[in-house]
Amino acid sequence: MSESRIAKAQKNIMTSLIQNFVSIGINFASRMIFVRILDESYLGINGLFSNILNILSLADLGMATVMMYSLYVPIENGDKKKIAALVSFFRKIYLGIALTVLIAGIGLIPFLDFIVNLNQPLPFLEGYYMLALLNVVISYLFVYRTTLISADQKTYILNQYSMIFKMITFAVQTVTLIFFKNYLIYLLAALVISFISNIFQNLAALKLYPYLKNDTEKLDKEERKKIFYDVKAMFIYKISGAIQSNTDHILISVFVGTVSVGYYSNYAMAVAQIVVVITLVFNSLKASVGNFIVSGEAKEEEKHFLFQVCETLNFWIVGFCSICFVSLFQDFIAICFGEGFLLEFGIVIAVVLNFYTTHIRQAIWMFRETTGIFQETKCVTLVTAVLNVIFSLAFGSIWGMVGILAATILAKLLYAFWKEPIILYRIVFKRSVASYFSAYIKNALLCILAGVLTYVSCEWVPMENPLFGFFLKILICCIAPNVVFFCCFWKTKEFQYIIKRLVLPLIQKTGKKSV
Question: Which residues have C-beta within 8 Å of that of residue 420, sequence separation ≥ 6?
Answer without folding.
Answer: 361, 364, 368, 377, 380
